[in-house]
Amino acid sequence: MSDCFILLSAGKSKRFKSKINKQFITYKNKPLFEHSLKIAQDSKLFKRILVVTNKKIKKTKYKSVDIIKGGVERYNSTANALRFLKNKKIKNVYIHDAARPNLSINLLRKLKNNLKNNYAVVPYLNSENSVKYRNNNKINNLNRDKILLTQTPQCFNFNELYNLYKNNKEKITDEASLYLNNNKKIKFILGDKNNFKITTVDDLKYLKSETYYGIGFDIHRLIKNKKLFLGGVKIPFHSGLKGHSDGDVILHAIIDGLLGAMRKSDIGTHFPSNSSKFKNIRSKNMLSPVLKLLNHNNFSINNIDINLICENPKVSRIRNKIIKSLSDLLSVNRNLINLKGKTVEKLGIIGKEQAIACEVVCSLSK
Ligand code: ZN
Hints:
Blueprint: E1 2-9, E2 26-27, E3 30-31, H1 32-43, E4 48-53, E5 66-69, H2 74-85, E6 90-97, H3 105-115, E7 120-126, E8 131-135, E9 138-142, E10 148-150, E11 154-157, H4 158-167, H5 175-181, E12 187-190, H6 201-206, E13 211-223, E14 228-230, E15 233-235, E16 240-241, H7 249-262, H8 267-270, H9 283-296, E17 300-309, H10 315-330, E18 337-342, H11 348-351, E19 355-365
Parallel strand pairs: 1-4, 1-6, 4-5, 7-12, 17-18
Antiparallel strand pairs: 2-3, 6-11, 7-10, 7-11, 8-9, 13-16, 13-19, 14-15, 17-19
Helix pairs in contact: 7-9
């Protein structure tokens, strides 16, 4: 018997006035729904993860995840998920809205602990606002200390929820309503304020973040009998870039740009050229510690603009390959990376094809 995390990502986002369904808008570099998916995976609490969506998503990108079609309304999507899980030996299900991207592993653990002695556990917040209730034409006060604002994941014993769903005829807005309609007991636990729901485009504006910029520059001499690497891509050329590493000027400039925006000194400090540890290192391997720093400090990349300064190779021929490579290496959407080519009127060592230079500006959010 195992637990399953169900990510509901099929909503029509009626209140979210944007051409893209909100579950797929980019939030901190990723489609919104991927944030909860990653937390569920990282928590290692689930044998199964199920995404319910009406959008085609690339299966290859989410290997350990089942993807099924959603319904018209939320409760139809949940019903599809429960039917899919029938006979799959599921003990508990955690049903979560993709529109809550700031789910924490801590909350998942708390829910799991409470499921040991309960069939239904739902997180809630107290209301910070005074609440009124309209009944026909009369508006009544409600005692806000007795208001429970429910969040997700809402967690249930699979068999019990399955049976309630099977017999349900009403339109419900969440699974907790179904439980309450059937006079079933729910253990409510205090949720997490950060686990808020993004409902309208305006909600995104309130997610304040600070923006930082970093600049990077690099130049390496071209020498014969060495392979040329630019942006992590091997490029057929008469020479390669001289250096301690593979001399990839694009990656070196990006690393300096990222370190600059994070205010973490420079590439030479992190990878001293007198250290034999880094001799002949492929520059793409130098990226991972920098990306770790980025993640640990809660930065995300807004965009990267690159000037590659050389007479040859011609940037127009290698642009797409390099952007794809950078997008993979940095885990950043391709359309956030721009690569421009700049020749130097055959002037100086760059003009004589004896060197290649690169400059980069990186923008980060924290
Ligand atoms: Zn360099």
